[in-house]
Amino acid sequence: MEKSIEQLMKLEPGLEYLGLTNLKEVHWNHCTPVLYEHVIKKNEGVLTHLGPIVVVRPGKSTGRAPRDKFIVKDENTADKIHWSTVNVPYDAKKFDYIFERVKAYLQDREIYVQDAYAGADEKYRVAIRVITEFAWQALFARNMLLRIRDRKLLPGFQPEFTVFAMPKFLGNPELDELNSETFILVNFTRKIVLIGGTYYAGEIKKSVFTVLNFLLPQKKVLSMHCSANVGKKGDTALFLDFPEPEKPRCRRTRTAPWSAMTNTAGVTTAFLILRAAVMPKRSACPKKQNLKFTKRPESSAPFWKTLFSIRLPVSST
Predict the structure, then answer these.
(1) How far apart are CA 184 and CA 170, in angstroms?
(2) Residue among 132, 121, 271 at smallest CA distance from 207
């Protein structure tokens, strides 16, 4: 049945603020089992014989793309970001042009929406909406971010940032002034992140951390890429720069339950959990002037490179 002009132009309920129209179907906040079913039914992946693990067989671009990440430079970000070969500026008008093409690309397609939080503390957390074209991406986002367990709260969810992840939508390097067909564009003014041309789902969580690394310091919160364990007496140890295969095993022991893993934020007296799942990465952590860092002898911890311990009270959150 063909749609009328009025139906084609009608804004998608719940996504009006994005200007999305003529979507084939919107899968709102499916739970994990339903997403597994969609992944298998659409042949996006399979279940292994040893457990409920989805194995995705993506396209050619499956790794990190640091050279393809840009941040829109405008009046809100010009003097707040250290522009460099890492924080590369991007023109706001070109962002708008690509976003219009993304919206056109999504017409008559199915999309998946996952609403979640980055950050466990209500005072500092950021409401994130992730929009993807594959079920396995939605499953990834649901696993990495802090999901809303009370589904009665979902209808009232108000996203502060929206992340689009469209692997099959390719950029035009010459037209869009990109380095390749892959792009990750962060717009802090419009509060939108556009990810295209890559099947690396990690760009979703990395973009969320980019947002947090911009917002949290303005609230006097230090964000870190590390793990943290809490001792019986409330003493906290930060684990930094692990060999990647060993990192997950450091996150919990019988005597030291974890307070935060992989990505944490330190406010002078507490630690906040920024995400729900672990994805081992190698990283370093900046020092903060009013915190005392002590290097621990390597002999007592042979499986990591460097450990900095810090004694701080731990928040109940």
Answers:
(1) 11
(2) 132
H helix runs in the chain, sequence order: 5-9, 32-41, 92-106, 135-144, 173-176, 202-215
Residues 6+ apart with CB under 8 A from 4: none
Q: Which two tokens stand for residue 186?
A: 């962060």
- Give residue limits of the domains in the chain: 5-219, 222-310
Confidence band for 309, pLDDT divided at 50, 70 and 90: very low
> What is the distance between the terminal CA atoms of the chain, rounded to a whole angstrom?
52
Among residues 255, 208, 206, 258, which one has the least CA distance to residue 228?
A: 258
User: Which CATH architecture does the domain made up of 5-219 adopt?
Assistant: 3-Layer(aba) Sandwich (3.40)
- Structural contact between residues 116 and 142, judged by C-beta atoms closer than 8 angstroms: yes
- Give the up-direction half-sphere exposure of residue 139: CA atoms within 13 A in the CB hemisphere: 19
pLDDT digits (tens, 9 = 90+) for 40-79: 899 888 887 776 667 666 666 667 787 899 999 999 999 9
Dihedral angle, C-alpha 172, 173, 177, 183, nearest 10 °: 80
pLDDT in tens, 112-122: 999 999 987 88
Residue 308 CA to residue 193 CA, distance in Å, equals: 33
